[in-house]
Write a structure and sequence with these properties.
Elements lengths: L2 H18 L9 E5 L6 E4 L15 E4 L4 E3 L6 H13 L5 E5 L2 H7 L20 E4 L9 H10 L5 E4 L3 E6 L2 H24 L8 H33 L6
Parallel strand pairs: 6-7
Antiparallel strand pairs: 1-2, 1-5, 2-3, 3-4, 5-8, 7-8
Length: 242
């Protein structure tokens, strides 16, 4: 399989898996990846199509001006302005996943909230989260996309106040791995809040050393996680590759 078809297959796989995990929101939210071998176009899920039965061939290809290169119709304006401006401004963001997933979005709705170092999965994100604490409405112009991308210049993840999250990575596997574990960490934190008891925070020096340990295994974990997702889909929903 060539690299461009592989990108389509991987993106369709994580879209379907995200629907299984209920990380999606109706027919909204978007996942994108730069077309391999290019710096001026990207693949993204089509306008208001449900993720549950997404296929590789359903994904649309868009250029730097928002023109449709391949597919049925271009994505909605907010998807273009958020995704393309981050792709342009953040070299590490070859893949970008934006969701309103339940627990991380709940965290974004709590005034001044931060992902706290109270469980091991949260340590994957030590000093890796940009917090956008001002909700400005829909991202309908390049200026708003640029504002969000500036927050992500040296971070992998953004938590957007009253809105949701963005994860980025050099590959779809990396970005999805972060999306999954971010939601898990946020879920544990919201559950901890619900007890009304004080949070037990991990000391910062332990956070830093554990983060470095996790970084050493990050590539392998991300690639194997995606491989397992596709292995299961190959058995249960093989048409995702079509």
């Amino acid at each position: 399989m060539d690299t461009r078809q592989q990108a389509r297959t991987d993106l369709a796989a994580v879209l379907r898996w995200s629907a299984r995990l209920e990380l999606h929101e109706g027919v909204d939210n978007h996942f994108s990846v730069m077309v391999p071998g290019t710096d001026d176009r990207f693949l993204i899920n089509p306008h208001r199509r449900h993720w549950r039965d997404m296929r590789a061939s359903d994904l649309v290809e868009v250029d730097a001006d928002g023109n449709l290169i391949a597919g049925a119709e271009p994505p909605e304006a907010t998807a273009f302005f958020i995704h393309w401006r981050i792709h342009v401004n953040c070299e590490h963001a070859r893949a970008i996943l934006h969701t309103h997933m339940p627990y991380a979005t709940t965290l974004s709705a709590i005034a001044g909230a931060r992902l706290e170092p109270i469980v091991q999965p949260a340590l994957k994100f030590h000093n890796q989260i940009a917090y956008d604490d001002q909700y400005n409405g829909l991202a309908l112009d390049a200026e708003e996309g640029d504002r969000l991308s500036m927050a992500l210049r040296d971070k992998r993840v953004a938590i957007l106040a009253n809105h949701g999250v963005i994860t980025t990575g050099p590959t779809i596997a990396h970005a999805f791995n972060d999306l999954y574990y971010l939601e898990r960490a946020a879920k544990f934190q919201i559950l901890a809040y619900s007890t009304g008891q004080p949070l037990q925070r991990i000391p910062q020096d332990v956070c830093a050393s554990t983060f470095e340990q996790m970084q050493a295994d990050r590539d392998d974990q991300a690639s194997r996680f995606l491989a397992e997702i596709k292995r299961i889909l190959d058995k249960e929903e093989p048409d995702y590759k079509d």
